[in-house]
């Protein structure tokens, strides 16, 4: 076997470059100068130098063959081996050969005398009346012998005890020669299969031979054809014909010319119906013909002719030992070459020239066909028994595969007679160059395929009695046994006939094992499959039938011969050396299975002698050898068992089986026949042949069953414990697998033969049209191999069984009887399950016919459902689909769904389909096939549900207040669905709902699996995810709905930011919903979820605000669309929002929001951000005023600052860290002072009455800042010596805000009942002290008149309130 090409190895570790990490997306650019480009790292240098992957040879995958496929492969290999056996080209490869195995023991004689048939007494009576001449011969191919008595021809069937003579006496001339020939097509009636060429001294005529259509039981009949031609003075001595073309050639005693008997159905313009044409002599030479017969014996004439139809060659032999060859080209005959006896002498090896040509002549020739040999074309035999083989040289063939025209012949090989003494007392020759008289008086010699040589040799002491020398080439010997210099020895023997040989013919011809030279002569390959070749020898006393002795018969005879155990074993070892162990074991198995026969004169019997069978069984078992492991194959496969080479015993068994099925294995099962009876489809192999093969296989099956405990590989696992090594265990496992496959194959082949026999008992013309189109196409070309060893064959067989049953159902036949008969005869093609299926179909058909009786029909439907459920594990898909279609038509909805679910379950009891779904749905996983099978069943349920909807649409759901029949059937069907726990089915069903857009039906489903399904689908599509939280919502599972919505807000689905905020808002609402008594969610869990949602909402709001600002921000120009798309999508982390967007874009208020959300507590960073926020806001206000042309009102930019501060503060007031009130008050006061100082140079105390004199404390009061904190902060600032409050004008601004806070605090304390003045006595005392200090006269000028008057007024009011 040629080595398989290795798969290119995969790179090992280090063979690929390292995969770079995901790169961080660059922040958007807001008009800044881009930084330096990032440095690119050379990945090839990371981690050191690369390590190239080590090259590993790929391992062949384990074989995944069925038992039938494995055995079929072995049988095909065995059949191919036949074509590699020795051929005649190998046999005659030397210049000469002289080796013979002269078999004195009849056990190994190549032929044995089968029977003898005496010449009928009526013939002797006719012979006694002879006046002129008599002659005798054989029509061997039709088992007839003939005799001519003067002008009469008589013939009879020599196989009959009392044959009836068939005669022809309707002509007056003495008969010289008779020959049986095949007629040309179209000349005679089809009933005439043969014609007799009858030559007399005056004319040659044709007689038809066939059956009379009026009396077909009468046997053969002679017919007058009216065709004859003159041959007067020619002396016809030899006639031959071409079986392929029907041409007839004649050799005469008058000359050496070749004549042809031309015949045709009708006369034509230039030729009559019958004429004789001379192909080798010109017309003007023909007048000498009449004188030739009167010349002395010097005239050269033809003594033998033979035709090679395979090469279209006619050979002739003259009385002067000259051979001529002619090419039969159409209707012509072209001379090609001539070989005289002298030329032959020069061609042969000098070592044999003397013995061959010493007092020798050629007595016969025999053509050798191209099917037998590609090199040799002719055998010529001398009168001293030397056989000369001629090789041919050919021109280029006209068509591929056909032999080319012959150019010449050469004597290239000589087979001498045996180097033995001819008579007792004589000295045998030692060398081929010495004279050899062993076959000194050969009178007749013939050769038959594949090399049978028969020569009649006259006895020297009695010329009327001849002996028959038979020699056969032993091409079956093992190659190691053949001697390379001389070829193999021929097997020869003598047969004493004690009479004179008149004719020799093939009665049962040999059929080659192959149509080509290699293997054609391999007789062992056909010894169990083809008829045994038989030769008929006609003598003057009767017809003797000789039969080829098969190797299997010789082996059984050897066993019966005895000789003791030791002697028998020695003989077996000799046979093993000569023919090989496998061949001997093959034949031993055949003997043990009853294949050997014993012949007698009256009958042929199989040998069933127990002693013979037992001895053969021991040879098969004890000489079987052991399996071995092909170490080279083991190194290239993942399964060591695939490298096991089975034992010679197994190979012999395969060889035996291949020989049993050889002629049927690759034969087409059927053939089409057109006749007067019409078109028919019949079996291509005769039933008798099929039964014979089946019988032989049955015997082998019985042998296995009886002897399995003795055969290694069939004896079971007990043999494993006796193995000494791991290799022995693997070898035994391989042997067991091989034998197990073979035993199973034999069983299947037996059933296949039974199936074919049963099949053609039916009218196939009516059955074939019922097959599906694909099965019909396969069936018309299907072989037995296809039927047994392929899935297509099994499917076609099932379709055939179904067609047979359906045909009988249609005719009203009893299905159970038919199906049971099929099951008994061929259970592999019609099992017990099939019988139940057919019963179910019958019940279903009856239910369909009983529609008028609803109750009866429903009972039949239920019965059919029970039967279908019994065989759900083996119910084919087409049967299921047909049954469901019928059920839907009968509105048996619940039963339909139940059947589909049952079949799906039986197809996958281990629930591998669900495991495949849960494991990621890998397309290369073998479990996918089970998933698809189950889905095919579930898809059928879709049609049921649609049919239910259609039925409800045409019928009201209620009638007289009660559910209608359609509604009841709908409820029954959906009840079956709701009770199903099959997750694969429910997944299929819900997916179908989604494909139909039936979302409400899906949400209304009452199944615990719906949640699992929607959870899986939620990861695939946003619509399906919406269905999940909707389902939770309508079932009051608000917490779960909130979790789904939260997940959606954070999902990778292509959602806008607004949509994500919407999901978060819904999630917050659901998470805040009231917890019912049935809800098991704890408050802690609920609060945790709500916190997470709120946090994410805060982040999303910030992202939304950044998005809106960036949309309006003209600074964003580079990658604008990408940046906006990123923000209008998944919610980003707070860090990314700060670093990449808010901080980069100088959105300081947003940065402050982020600080609050992130709980950032770095006071310096926060203070700096607030400062930047105030500066940025002020600058923006100034720019806007300038842009509006209000340069005079630039000082009023504080209004925008106040507004922005108030807005930001309202969002941050709850964060003490991000909204540090003391820091912010001081920051604003400083800003206010700078603003006042910048406006027209006015005094700090003189503020614009139209402005907001106390806008800073107002902001904080609006933000609900405690008065105590405001007072403390402003008081601290006022009395602090730090800048800017060291100057009196600046301090007055702060003091004014401080007094404003005191006044507002006083007002609030006064208006709110029950509230203590200034928060308590301590606060009251502090304020009183401040007012007293401020109202002193010496301070009036320092704090300003307005502040001093305000302080006095507040002091007075406080005093009043305290009093």
What does this structure look like?
Helix 34 packs antiparallel against helix 35 (1083-1112), helix 35 runs parallel beside helix 37 (1134-1142) and helix 39 runs parallel beside helix 41. Among the domains are: 553-752, Methane Monooxygenase Hydroxylase, Chain G, domain 1 (Up-down Bundle); 1228-1363, no CATH class. The termini are far apart. It has 47 helices and 38 strands. The chain is an alpha+beta fold and 1363 residues long. A hairpin with a 2-residue loop joins strand 35 and strand 36. The strands form 11 sheets. Strands 1-23-22-21-20 form a 5-stranded mixed β-sheet, covered by helices on one side. Strands 2-27-26-25-24 form a 5-stranded mixed β-sheet, with no helix packed on it. A 4-stranded antiparallel β-sheet has the order 3-30-29-28, with no helix packed on it. Mean pLDDT is 83; it is low at 1-27, 31-57, 286-297, 479-486 and 1240-1250. The radius of gyration is 57 Å and the shape is elongated. Keywords: Membrane, mRNA transport, Nuclear pore complex, Nucleus, Protein transport, Translocation, Transport. It is a peripheral membrane protein. Its main location: nucleus.
Strand order in the sheet with the most strands? 1-23-22-21-20
Counting DSSP E segments of at least 2 residues, the number of strands comes to: 38
Average predicted local confidence, pLDDT: 83
**Could you give a short account of the major beta sheet?**
5 strands, mixed
Low-pLDDT residue spans? 1-27, 31-57, 286-297, 479-486, 1240-1250
Q: Can you name the CATH architecture of the domain at 553-752?
A: Up-down Bundle
Share of residues in strands: 15-25%
Q: Helicity, in percent?
A: 40-55%
């Amino acid at each position: 076997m040629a080595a398989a090409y290795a798969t290119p190895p995969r790179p090992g570790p280090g063979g690929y470059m390292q995969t770079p990490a995901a790169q961080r997306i660059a922040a958007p650019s807001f008009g800044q100068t881009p930084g330096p480009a990032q440095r690119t790292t050379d990945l090839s240098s990371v981690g050191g130098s690369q390590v190239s992957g080590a090259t590993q040879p790929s391992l062949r995958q384990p074989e995944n063959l069925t038992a039938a496929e494995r055995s079929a492969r072995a049988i095909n290999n065995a059949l191919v081996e036949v074509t590699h056996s020795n051929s005649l080209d190998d046999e005659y490869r030397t210049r000469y050969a002289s080796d013979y195995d002269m078999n004195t023991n009849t056990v190994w004689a190549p032929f044995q005398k089968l029977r003898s048939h005496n010449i009928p007494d009526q013939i002797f009576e006719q012979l006694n009346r002879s006046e002129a001449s008599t002659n005798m011969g054989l029509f061997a191919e039709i088992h007839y012998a003939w005799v001519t008595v003067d002008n009469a021809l008589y013939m009879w069937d020599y196989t009959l005890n009392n044959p009836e003579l068939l005669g022809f006496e309707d002509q007056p001339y003495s008969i010289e020669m008779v020959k049986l020939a095949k007629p040309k097509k179209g000349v005679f009636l089809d009933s005439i299969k043969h014609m007799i060429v009858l030559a007399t001294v005056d004319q040659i005529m044709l007689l038809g031979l066939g059956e009379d259509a009026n009396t077909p039981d009468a046997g053969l009949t002679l017919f007058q054809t009216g065709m004859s031609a003159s041959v007067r003075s020619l002396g016809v001595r030899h006639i031959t014909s071409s079986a392929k073309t029907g041409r007839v050639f004649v050799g005469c005693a008058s000359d050496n010319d070749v004549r042809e008997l031309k015949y045709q159905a009708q006369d034509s313009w230039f030729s009559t119906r019958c004429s004789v044409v001379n192909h080798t002599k010109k017309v003007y030479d023909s007048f000498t013909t009449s004188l030739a017969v009167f010349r002395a014996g010097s005239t050269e004439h033809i003594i033998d002719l033979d035709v090679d139809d395979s090469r279209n060659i006619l050979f002739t032999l003259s009385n002067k030992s000259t051979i001529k060859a002619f090419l039969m080209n159409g209707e012509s005959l072209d001379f090609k070459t001539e070989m005289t006896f002298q030329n032959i002498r020069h061609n042969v090896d000098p070592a044999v020239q003397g013995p061959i040509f010493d007092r020798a002549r050629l007595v016969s020739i025999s053509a050798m066909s191209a099917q037998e040999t590609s090199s040799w074309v002719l055998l010529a035999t001398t009168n001293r028994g030397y056989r000369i083989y001629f090789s041919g040289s050919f021109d280029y063939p006209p068509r591929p595969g056909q032999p080319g025209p012959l150019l010449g012949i050469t004597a290239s090989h000589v087979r001498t007679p045996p180097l033995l003494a001819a008579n007792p007392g004589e000295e045998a020759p030692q060398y081929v160059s010495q004279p050899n008289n062993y076959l000194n008086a050969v009178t007749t010699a013939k050769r038959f395929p594949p090399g049978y040589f028969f020569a009649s040799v006259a006895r020297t002491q009695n010329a009327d009695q001849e002996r028959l020398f038979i020699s056969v080439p032993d091409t079956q010997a093992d190659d190691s046994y053949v001697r390379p210099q001389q070829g193999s020895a021929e097997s020869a023997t003598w047969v004493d006939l004690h009479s004179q040989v008149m004719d020799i013919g093939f009665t049962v011809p040999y059929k080659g094992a192959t149509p080509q030279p290699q293997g054609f002569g391999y007789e062992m390959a056909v010894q169990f499959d083809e008829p045994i070749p038989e030769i008929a020898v006609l003598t003057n006393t009767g017809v003797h039938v000789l039969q080829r002795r098969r190797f299997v018969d010789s082996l059984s005879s050897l066993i019966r011969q005895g000789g003791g155990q030791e002697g028998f074993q020695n003989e077996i070892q000799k046979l093993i050396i000569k023919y090989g162990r496998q061949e001997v074991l093959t034949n031993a198995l055949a003997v043990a299975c009853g294949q050997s026969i014993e012949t007698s004169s009256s009958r042929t019997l199989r040998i069933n002698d127990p002693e013979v069978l037992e001895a053969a069984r021991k040879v098969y078992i004890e000489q079987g050898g052991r399996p071995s492991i092909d170490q080279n194959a083991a190194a290239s496969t993942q399964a060591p068992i695939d490298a096991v080479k089975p034992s010679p015993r197994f190979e012999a068994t395969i060889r035996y089986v291949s020989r049993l099925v050889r002629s049927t294995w690759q034969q087409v099962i059927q053939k089409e026949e057109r006749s007067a009876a019409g078109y028919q489809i019949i079996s291509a192999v005769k039933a008798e042949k099929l039964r014979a093969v089946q019988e032989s296989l049955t015997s082998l099956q019985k042998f296995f069953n009886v002897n399995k405990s003795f055969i290694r590989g069939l004896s079971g696992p007990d043999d494993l414990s006796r193995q000494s090594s791991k290799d022995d265990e693997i070898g035994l496992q391989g042997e067991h697998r091989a034998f197990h496959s073979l035993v199973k194959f034999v069983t299947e082949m037996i059933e296949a033969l039974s199936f074919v026999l049963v099949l053609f008992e039916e009218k196939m013309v009516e059955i074939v049209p019922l097959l599906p189109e694909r099965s019909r196409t396969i069936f018309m070309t299907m072989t037995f191999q296809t039927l047994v060893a392929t899935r297509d064959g099994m499917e076609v067989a099932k379709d055939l069984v179904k067609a047979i049953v359906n045909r009988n159902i249609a005719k009203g036949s009893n299905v159970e009887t038919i199906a049971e008969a099929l099951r008994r005869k061929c259970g592999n093609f019609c099992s017990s399950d099939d019988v139940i299926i057919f019963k179910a179909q019958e019940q279903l058909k009856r239910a369909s016919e009983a529609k008028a009786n609803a109750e009866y029909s429903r009972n039949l439907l239920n019965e059919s459902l029970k039967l279908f459920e019994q065989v759900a594990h083996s119910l084919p898909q087409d049967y299921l689909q047909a049954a469901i279609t019928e059920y839907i038509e009968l509105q048996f909805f619940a039963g339909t769904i139940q059947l589909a679910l049952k079949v799906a379950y039986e197809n996958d009891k281990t629930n591998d389909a669900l495991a495949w779904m849960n494991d990621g749905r890998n397309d290369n996983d073998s479990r996918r096939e089970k998933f698809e099978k189950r889905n095919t069943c579930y898809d059928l349920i879709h049609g049921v549900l649609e049919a239910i909807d259609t039925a409800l649409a045409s019928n009201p759901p209620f009638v007289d207040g009660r559910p209608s029949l359609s509604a009841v059937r709908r409820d029954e069907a959906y009840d079956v669905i709701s009770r199903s726990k099959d997750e694969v089915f429910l997944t299929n069903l819900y997916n179908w709902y989604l494909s139909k857009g039936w979302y409400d039906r899906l949400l209304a489903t009452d199944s615990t699996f719906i949640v699992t399904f929607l959870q899986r689908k939620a990861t695939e599509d946003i619509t399906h995810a919406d269905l999940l939280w909707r389902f939770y919502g309508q079932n009051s599972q608000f917490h779960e709905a909130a979790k789904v919505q939260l997940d959606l807000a954070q999902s990778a689905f292509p959602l806008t930011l607004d949509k994500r905020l919407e999901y978060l808002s819904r999630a917050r609402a659901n998470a805040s919903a009231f917890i019912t008594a049935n809800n098991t969610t704890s408050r802690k869990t609920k609060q945790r979820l709500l916190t997470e949602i709120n946090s994410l909402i805060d982040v999303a709001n910030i992202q939304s605000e950044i998005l809106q600002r960036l949309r309006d921000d003209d600074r964003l120009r580079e990658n604008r669309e990408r940046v906006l798309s990123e923000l209008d999508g998944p919610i980003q982390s707070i860090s990314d929002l700060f670093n990449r967007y808010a901080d980069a874009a100088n959105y300081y208020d947003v940065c402050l929001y982020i600080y609050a959300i992130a709980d950032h507590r770095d006071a310096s960073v926060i203070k700096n951000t607030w400062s930047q926020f105030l500066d940025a806001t002020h600058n923006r206000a100034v720019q806007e005023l300038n842009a509006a042309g209000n340069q005079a009102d630039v000082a009023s930019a504080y209004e925008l600052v106040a507004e922005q501060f108030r807005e930001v503060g309202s969002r941050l007031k709850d964060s003490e860290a991000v909204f540090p009130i003391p820091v912010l008050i001081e920051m604003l006061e400083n800003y206010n002072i700078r603003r006042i100082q910048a406006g027209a140079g006015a005094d700090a105390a003189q503020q614009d009455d139209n402005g907001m004199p106390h806008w800073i404390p107002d902001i904080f009061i609006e933000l609900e800042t405690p008065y105590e904190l405001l007072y403390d902060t402003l008081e601290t600032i006022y009395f602090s010596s730090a800048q800017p409050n060291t100057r009196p004008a600046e301090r007055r601004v702060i003091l004014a805000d401080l007094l404003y806070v005191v006044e507002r605090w006083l007002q609030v304390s006064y208006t709110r009942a029950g509230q203590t003045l200034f928060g308590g006595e301590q606060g009251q005392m502090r304020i009183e002290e401040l007012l007293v200090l401020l109202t002193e006269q010496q301070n009036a000028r320092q704090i300003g008149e307005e502040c001093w008057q305000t302080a006095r007024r507040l002091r007075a009011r406080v005093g009043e309130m305290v009093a």
